[in-house]
Amino acid sequence: MEIQTVPVIKDNNADFEVISLDTIWNESKLKHPWWYNLKYFVAGIAFGIILVKAEVVSWFRIQEMFRLQSFHMYGVIGSAVVTGIISIWLIKKFGIKTIHGEKIELHPKSFNKGQVYGGLLFGFGWALTGACPGPLFALIASGALVIVVTLISAVGGTWMYGYLRNRLPH
Amino acid sequence: MDVIQWIKQPWPWYVAGPLIGLTVPALLLLGNKKFGISSSLRHICAVVFPSNISFFKYDWKKEIWNLFFAAGIIIGAFLAVSFLSDHTPVQVNGKLVTELSGYGITNYDHLAPVDLFNWHSLLTLRGFIVMVIGGFLVGFGTRYAGGCTSGHSIMGLANLQGPSLVATICFMIGGFIMANLIMPFILRL
To answer: For the segment A4-15, what is each residue's pLDDT rounded down to a tens digit?
Structure first.
């Protein structure tokens, strides 16, 4: 028998992107005024430009990817991952800190069935809409205003997951 | 060599991919943030209609950076389309062109095909499945999986997380099944 040392709240948290739910994580002690968030707005602008210029937000490119008719998407995602791996390795190796002097902390994710069931469902949606959440925002701004409906539906899907969460296998 | 002309063309994968990858260290260095966009949908739920559901009852103000990032994507995409584009049609594989023409999708002027993504199409069964059901699956699936292409496939894989690899493989399997086995029937509707 393994001794259970992990707080219960962590077992319930199958979602790794929201930090404030998980009490065992060290939260930043720094308190900044709201406009410090503008740096993420600027990062988002750069990211939005790249998404459009690389055409990774294009429905056509996603169809090509899932039909193995083009290397483009595989090249983009593959080289992005390699760049990310090298970056995180460098951050860990040299103990690089944030611009505010805080230690950069990364947390392990744990396996649960949601990665399979949810993953498959998202895969269906990705092929249908040709978009993951980031591109949904980008596509609306690219002129396809009707995709506002898709975004609202995606928010509805997220809400429905929250509503059904306790009854779903994890 | 005209730099502006070059920027206005679609960027090749070996330029775009590393730039997307650099988003990972950029967000970490800016303030210990983990790259992941699908949580913005959860924050929108938490802000707009938490409905007393525990999954949406958390201090979303602590996660507000994510909505700033999403807002930036909207502006960045607008700038790219308006000022950094030469508006050439999307170039795709000839086989796909042949297949899509069978479904009446022939316009490649925009990133999303206007033959499929338009207000009128929303009222057809085909458009409803693609835009509404598809969007629902994106929102439901990403949250159930605990992340999307950015949170799992890029951030998670960059941090060598096994669960993110499982999720990414399932994203791809789901996409392959939908695009090759199911969508031919949906697009014919």
So the answer is: 443 334 445 566
CA distance A148 to A93: 43
A144: nearest Cα among B186, B185, B37, B107 = B107
State whether ipTM is beyond 0.85: yes
Closest Cα in chain B, distance from residue A113 (Å): 8
Residue A99, amino acid: I
In 3D space, the residue among B148, B87, B110 whose CA is nearest the CA of residue A77 turns out to be: B148
- Residue in B44, B95, B171 nearest the CB of A119: B171
Record: contact B13-A143, CB cut-off 8 A: no
Residue-level pLDDT at A2? 42
The span from the CA of B85 to the CA of A169, in Å, is 45
3-state secondary structure of A17: coil
pTM metric for this prediction: 0.92
- 3-class DSSP assignment, residue A103: strand
Under an 8 A CB cutoff, do B146 and A128 touch?
A: no
Closest Cβ–Cβ partner in B78, B148, B154 for A122: B148
